[in-house]
Amino acid sequence: NMNWGTLFTKNLIPVTIGNILGGAVFVGSSYWFSYLRKPKGSA
């Protein structure tokens, strides 16, 4: 049984939170690997 309340509480809100957290982790780690990680042999 789907109504507007369950649509938001059981679908849209968890999906939005997951997308924000997942995007932050994956984009942040890709930037870290690309630009901020020091190459081997540097101090």
Number of strands: 0
Number of helices: 1
What can be said about the biggest beta sheet? none
| Fraction of residues in β-strands | under 5%
Radius of gyration: 18 Å
Overall geometry comes to rod-shaped
Summarize the helix and strand pattern as letters: H
Low-confidence parts, pLDDT < 50 over ≥5 residues?
none
Q: How would you state the average pLDDT, rounded? A: 89
Distance between the termini: 60 Å
The assigned structural class equals mainly alpha
Q: Helix coverage percent of residues?
A: over 70%
What would your notes on this structure say?
The protein has 43 residues and is mostly helical. 77% of the residues lie in helices and 0% in strands. The model has no long low-confidence stretch (mean pLDDT 89).
